[in-house]
UniProtKB/TrEMBL annotation:
Name assigned to this protein: DNA damage-binding protein CMR1
Keyword Ribosomal protein: no
Family per record: Belongs to the WD repeat DDB2/WDR76 family.
One MF annotation (Gene Ontology) recorded for this entry: DNA binding
A GO BP entry: DNA damage response
Record lineage: Eukaryota, Fungi, Dikarya, Ascomycota, Pezizomycotina
Length: 533
């Protein structure tokens, strides 16, 4: 302000504003002093040189919850005409929550009794057992992935028999009637698959995450397309998808399936809903072959198998570490039903897979989350204290253990290896009751490096032998995370790497061989299948 000029007087508004600011500052200062005196605001301790700061506490490990029921959706109270935060609103929210919770729980509860296939069909054609089985049934652009087994490997093979087998397996062709992305056999992710033992046509079964069973007859051919007139804008070319039947025999994941060659009209399915159902393909009925005494008992099943000599006894494993033996002939008798099932606690953690030895069915192998592959003898298996005749520990969990008729076991493990154990060469056929194996006897004869890190959205990779190969060379197939299916011999030599020339857009994680024919099928997380013949 220039000297000599009078000071400008503040207006009444500016005076009031300045007074308000001063009053606010005084109040804030007072509140700050009171907070400091009560200890609410404490200055952090000064950092002292030479003293190491405390380590950051590691976050708690998240535990995956299997098939957790989804939380009920929130609804608008305003649209419902209810005032928020009122007692009516609270009661309505609680009632809605409990109702939705009951609905979700009801979907997961096992349905007991026989199920007619016509009543549980989800999609596809009406069930027709006569036409489906055949006359002998009762008797986005794909990513580029590099191959690790090529025609050059076959060319450089010096062993004539091995070379011939490699040429044969690598010569399998993808089913050309429909592209794999059009063959959606189940609504959700495929967990288990099986071929029907018939040799007249490839009949494929696939079980998914929600308990659906898809059935595909791969002998069908696309109908001849109908030519569309150029002036008919509303018409579309008739190009239907393959005929697939989908039913829902279980309320939860179908984890495994099995068909005994002596009873080919029955498909056994094990499920996380704690039951095993027998799908009678002739009568079109899914009967309950095994289930716990109460529908409230939660004992998710991870596998099912039968011995070649006896199709009436079911063997199964659970996610709680149990191994079970159930005689279906005793289940219908009220007096003997209690004795129809024997349960053995073989592991404190999940048993992911198991199988009986086809040639010596009193021996069976289990693979568990506790990192062990164990070999057991049914002839002296104690309920009180079951002991294996031998075990081998891997660095990470073992996903599956598959026996073949030659007494060899193939396992897949999260340590990214496929291990092969040759107990046939160690005299399995001549072992007496009570025979045990030491640590050296349980060492694998072959290890194959194989990526088994499937993650959360891809089904765990499991090896599966061809049950009755039409050659002396034992072989098994397993999914490849690079969207192939690999085929190996029992000595670890690769026979083929099946691909689809850019048509395979997802990992065929679930892969199985036909029992006798050189047919291989793979199932993906999108419920689609790839078939090579």
């Amino acid at each position: 302000m220039p000297r000599g000029e009078p000071a400008t007087e503040l207006s009444d508004f500016e005076k009031q504003r300045a007074a308000n600011i001063a009053e606010r500052d005084a109040l804030l200062k007072k509140l700050t002093l009171e907070a400091q005196s009560t200890g609410l605001f404490k200055k952090p301790p000064a950092f002292k040189s030479g003293v190491q700061s405390a380590k950051k506490k590691a976050p708690a490990k998240r535990v995956k919850k299997e098939n957790e029921a989804p939380a009920p959706r929130r609804t608008s109270l305003r649209l419902a005409g209810i005032t928020a935060e009122s007692e009516v609103a609270k009661r309505k929210a609680e009632v809605d929550y409990q109702a939705e919770k009951a609905v979700q729980q009801a979907k997961r509860v096992r349905v007991s009794g026989d199920l007619d296939l016509g009543n549980i069909i989800v999609s596809g054609q009406k069930w027709d057992s006569s036409g489906l089985l055949g006359i002998d049934a009762t008797s986005s652009p794909p990513a580029k992935y590099g191959r690790t087994f090529t025609a050059e490997d076959i060319k450089n093979t010096t062993d004539k028999d091995l070379k011939a087998m490699r040429e044969k397996m690598s010569g399998l062709q993808l089913w050309g009637s429909w592209e794999p992305n059009r063959i959606k056999i189940t609504p959700e992710r495929i967990y288990s698959m099986s071929f029907h033992p018939t040799e007249t046509k490839p009949l494929i079964f696939a079980g998914d995450k929600l308990g659906n069973l898809g059935i595909l007859d791969a002998s069908q051919s696309p109908p001849k397309s109908v030519k569309v007139e150029d002036d008919d804008e509303d018409a579309e070319e008739d190009d239907p998808d393959p005929v697939i039947t989908t039913i829902k025999p279980h309320s939860r994941t179908i984890s495994a399936m099995h068909i005994h060659p002596a009873t080919p009209s029955k498909l056994y399915m094990a499920s996380y809903d704690s039951s095993i159902r027998a799908l009678d393909l002739e009568k079109s009925v899914a009967t309950e072959a095994y289930a716990p005494a109460s529908t409230s008992d939660d004992e998710p099943l991870s596998g099912v198998d039968t011995a070649l000599e006896n199709p009436h006894v079911l063997y199964f494993t659970t996610l709680d570490g149990y191994f079970g033996r159930h005689d279906t002939r005793m289940a219908g008798d009220a007096d003997s039903s209690k004795n129809a099932t024997d349960l053995y606690q073989l592991s404190e953690k999940k048993i992911g897979g198991f199988s009986l030895c086809p040639s010596q069915p009193h021996y069976f192998a289990t693979a568990s989350l506790d990192r062990f592959m164990r070999l057991w003898d049914l002839r002296h298996l104690s309920k009180r204290d079951p002991s294996p005749i031998g075990e081998h520990e891997s660095s990470l969990s073992v996903s599956h253990a598959a026996f073949n008729a030659a007494g060899q076991i193939a396992t897949s493990s999260y340590d990214n290896t496929i291990k092969i154990y040759d107990f046939g060469a160690k005299g399995l056929d001549s072992w007496k009751k009570g025979h045990t194996l030491d640590e050296s006897d349980m060492q694998p004869t072959t290890k194959i490096r194989h990526n088994c890190q499937t993650g959360r959205w891809v089904t765990i990779l499991r090896p599966q032998w061809q049950a009755s190969p039409q050659s002396p060379i034992q072989r098994f197939c397993i999914g490849n995370m690079n969207r192939f299916i690999d085929i190996y011999t029992s000595s670890g030599q690769q026979l083929a790497q099946l691909s689809g020339d850019g048509l395979i857009t997802a990992v065929p994680a679930v892969s199985v061989f036909h029992r006798t024919q050189d047919w291989v099928v793979g199932g993906t997380a999108s419920g689609k299948v790839c078939l090579w013949m």
